Amino acid sequence: MARLAGKVAVVTGGGNGLGRATALRFAEEGAAVVVADLLDGAGEETVRLIESAGGRATFVSVDVTSRADNDRMARTAIEAFDGLHVVVTAAGVATGEYVSGDLEGAQKAMRARFEPDPARGFVDLDLDDWQSVLDINLTGTLKSLQACVAAMLDHGCAAGGSLVTIASIGAKHPDAGSLQYGASKAGVWWITKKLARDLVGKGIRVNSIGPGFIETNMTAIMQFMPPARLDHILGQIPMGRMGTPLEIANAALFLASDEASYFTGEILHPDGGFFTD
Are strands 56-61 and 32-37 parallel, antiparallel or unpaired? Predict the structure, then answer.
């Protein structure tokens, strides 16, 4: 039997990278999937891929910083598929200007922001960028979870539910991302821990994935780092390679499925051995 048969899943950031891989993997395992993304074309392509493989999916355009958009996303799951059982919050950015797939813009941002002197980089930190990253990665995750949990409770589908947040090794390791990115993902990790306690009485499990360096549009910007910096980062991966979106999707599938029925408040680190503490 398919591992998510009869389940309805919402995946934010479902148009690209980890979100798309997760949406596709969930559909393969029997879930009906609400693909949520700010980029309409990318999200609609994920739905097309799911449907062409015989799965069920629908797209909803969502800015995760908007509570109204998140409410509409959760409502879409109920109206389209008559339930909501699994949520994966994969929407996120590396910088405030980040647009998935825009390598030219990413190159400009990377070159403008890289400061070889870390102390000077901190002093000159762009607070608008700081706020934008936290608004999307941290508060956006919170708003998505609020809307979806409300729908799960209101429509009687909380018991057996599973929330999977996407954090990062950057939440725990200072060499795995910028200050604002790491701070935002550390907040996601803490939301996960807190909600695991707060929602357990409703039958909802809450876990997180803290990926290492994964081959996505977001990490593609690393090619614009100074070579010595890039070599330093990649040299810390014992397995000698970056991960794939499918490897993260498989971790999300495990946490979403009944196979992880005794897991809550946990964070998995698919990172090739980068983080071993």
Answer: parallel
